[in-house]
Amino acid sequence: MRYAMAVDTAKCVGCSDCVVACQTENDVPHGFARDWVVEVNFGTYPELKTEIRSERCNHCDNAPCVRCCPTGASKIVEGGIVLVEHDKCIGCGACITSCPYDARFSHPDGYADKCTFCEHRVKHGDDPACVAVCPTKCLYFGDIDDPGSDVSGVIRTREYKTLIPEAGTQPQIYFLT
Amino acid sequence: MANRRDFIKIAGLGTASIALANPALKALNNTFFSPADPLSAGLYRTPMVCEICFWKCAGWTYKKEDGTIWKLEGNADDPNCNGRLCPRGTGGVGTYLDPDRLKTPLIRTGERGNQTFREATWDEALDYIAEKMKGIAAESGPESIALFSHRTGSAYFNDMLKAFGSSTYAAPSYAQCKGPREEAFYLTFGETIGSPERTDIRDTKCLVLIGSHIGENMHNGQVQEMSDAIDKGASIITVDPRFSTAAGKSKFWLPIKPATDMALLLAWINVLITEGWYDKEYVEKYTFGFDQLKAHVRSFTPEWAYGITTIKPDVIRDTAREMFNASPAVIIHPGRHTTWYGDDTQRLRTVAILNALLGSWGRRGGFYNPDRISLPQMPGPEFPKPARTWRDYYPDKYVLAGEGVSNVLVDASIPDGEREPFVKAWFVDATNLIETLPDKRRTLEAIDKLELIVAVDIMPMEITGYADVVLPEATYLERYDDIRVSPGRVPTMALRMPAFEPQYNSKPGWWIARELGLKLGLKEYYPWENIEELLEWQLKQVDSSLDEMKRIGVKVLPRSYDDIYFAPGEDIEFGTATGKIELYSTQLAAEGFDPMPKYTPHPQPPEGYYRLIYGRAPMHTFSRTSNNQHLRNLMDENNVWVNPAIAKRWGIENGMEVWLRNQDGVVSNFPIKVRVTERIRWDSVYMVHGFGHGNKLLTRCFGKGASDTQLITNVKIDPVMGGTGMRENFVTFLFEPEEVIS
Fold first, then answer.
1. Taking the CA atoms of chain A, what radius of gyration do you get in angstroms?
2. What is the mean pLDDT of residues B557-586?
């Protein structure tokens, strides 16, 4: 089993519901966010194109944050979810620096924090909070090893890209274009 | 394509360097329960209906184990949200938690406009209001007390004033927003659009947006359905001088010269008729005035429109064909905020006529026929007939207005030299009139003349700073309200109930209105002691109960008739004078207005000025949410969008602060940061409405960004229904605050 997410940029309107839903679901302190929205514009008026992406930790198969963690607090758990064990984290910040996606931050309580794919929901069969709330249903989540899952379906049938693939991190967030 | 590239994070703070720890909101050690666990869910969640905007999504308030608020989620059975609240709804937590909330009743001790109040008990405050109201009623009649209200569906204050003898009422959602559209569709089809809109977007094959920015306006159901339509391959045509989010998802984007929409719409009608691209059977069977329309639009060719709109003739023809190929599953969307240039009812008439020609009204993928349940009222005495209404005071004005016109009530509050003003007191309920009505100077002139201003709100707003008495209402998570009975494809009922006791000394609206009613001697109009008794009685009449609604939150009911779409060949009697869809409006003709829409040129900005276009951001509602920390995290100020070519001419760089000055010399209270972007036309600037708050009691959002309303001083009144056209204001840039003083 391997959890993955696909983000349909053709549908995302950048409303940031994913950001605030994550914040309330996971008690993310104000001033920090585990997910965020990026808008990229191309062209000159009136030949324009906008891409809007809901971004978060890529839960990489080859995760630099896990490799560089001196205490083993950053780890990969079942389904490929990259997690931080708060009690083991000494707050050294190595993982924050190593992440090419800028997905981690230093929580005021002293540990590195980031998206958990809402592991506490996923293990009960629910979608992550961002996926469950998205008004445009532009986020697809599921087991990429299961050919019947939603996420497998859209990755099979749509064009997609990943972010900074050249970093060799093998990210598991797919952006449908 | 990628020769220019703006790259911004529009929400969220991914960097580790920003530390804004809020000790009051210290993260708990995560002791989450799963919503999938019914025991936990049953223990911790209560039904709610969102009050952050007018869409009224139903959902659940979830509490943590310690009884404090955790989160808000949509109710999966609610067709308004399908279990998915929008960012504002999800972030409603921040409205409940806002430390700047109004906390106790306040009675003015100084001049209006200054925040000089003394704290009062509820008894004192309501006694004060009741005595004043009785005095005003004795002298000028109870009808001289006007109510301005913009809350979601609860009529407590309206009923209290009706019982007192006043039907003088207006909601700014009419004459400052959707009024022109409602009247235009009523004149054409004999029915209004309503809210939520009856647009069948999920099944449409072609969605045409005229300046409507679905996705930035976060009208939840419509945003969801537009996404569904994209999934199903529908084409979107967007007409907007700004490259809106929806334009970015469109097959055709028509970057129109602002204020020329009417010419494009008439040209589309011309093409449909000239090419025979209309539903001949539908037009023949259901419409009135086709021959007059055909003759009327003969000269409005795409070539004619090109010179006005800057949209090329072949694009006008291609998009007309796109609509026809999709028909009848096509929606020329009527929009919502439609008060633009003063000929708005007529512009929306062209939209209605286009839909009629394409046969989309009453058809799948066009406009469906909504259904709703009407809950019986508890028996009680009838309201007295008011001695006068504003229509008696202005017998010749806006006879086709279907609702109260807020700007007319403002006019009626100002002495006109000959007559006593009709309105002597304002009851302002959940609407920040200072930021809602254009031409602030006029609003303040009226305020200066009034004998009493009462404001009911949850937050200190600009308007509460002018009130004589401020009444703090409990938030929607702390109170019951009327059962929500939204129209939709199926009728529904939804319950709002308190998840928490009211914080501070705030009270629910129903309680405030009833207590004041009792002090006014209106006890006979309140055959119930508390709201639960009333709701229980109402729900029993429709075979439900408060207990059932507390458990399920939303009840979906069957349609009364199987009439969501017209049946093929069905005979339909429309609610117009002719019983037909009126392409030629007999009612407009009878009142001396153009029976068919004409193009009127509107002024364009003078040299060095740019048309002020305003709109919505998906994470804020009006000026209502600017202080909500959860939503400020997503957007804490507005920017003014400026085209790079214009920015270069002025030497403006991205992120630079400027002041804006309009054509009447009014300068923005606060500076605003520039967003240099290709997404806006060179003759316009754009800003999101609702920022630039001037009330210091809003400690987080005071002075953040600038207010568009303040710069809207040129108001074009729609002669048909009194709407306030607000898009004929032009601004230029100032770089020095010194210039502001001079």
1. 16
2. 96
Interface of B with A in 23-42 (CB under 8 A): 25-28, 30, 32, 34-37
Hey, what are B572's tokens?
Answer: 């339909």
Nearest-Cα residue of chain B relative to residue A25: B71
Sequential DSSP letters for B493-507:
EE----SSPPSTT-B
Phi, psi dihedral angles at B734 (to 5 degrees): -120, 145
- Listed by start position, the domains of chain B span 31-97+476-507+527-561, 178-368, 610-741
Which residues, at least 6 apart from B539, have a Cβ–Cβ distance to it below 8 Å? B375, B483, B493, B545, B546, B548, B549
Which helix (H) or strand (E) segment holds residue B354: the answer is helix B344-357
Q: Distance, in angstroms, between A163 CA and closest chain B CA?
A: 15
Dihedral of the alpha carbons of B22, B25, B31, B34, in degrees to the nearest 10: -110
pLDDT confidence bin for B39, thresholds 50/70/90: very low
Half-sphere exposure of residue B616: CA atoms within 13 angstroms, side-chain side: 26
pLDDT in tens, B645-689: 999 999 999 999 999 999 999 999 999 999 999 999 999 999 999
The 8-class DSSP code of residue B734 comes to E
Which CATH number applies to B178-368? 3.40.228.10
- Fold (topology level) of B31-97+476-507+527-561: Formate dehydrogenase/DMSO reductase, (3.30.2070)
Class of domain B610-741: mainly beta
Task: Determine the pLDDT at residue B739.
Answer: 55
Q: What is the ipTM of this complex?
A: 0.97
Strand extents, DSSP E, B521-569: 554-556
Q: What is the pLDDT of residues B275-319, one digit of tens each?
A: 999 999 999 999 999 999 999 999 999 999 999 999 999 999 999
Residue A167's Cβ-side half-sphere holds a number of Cα atoms within 13 Å equal to: 17
- Is the CB of residue B198 less than 8 Å from the CB of residue B565? no
Judge: B30–A26 Cβ closer than 8 Å, yes or no. yes
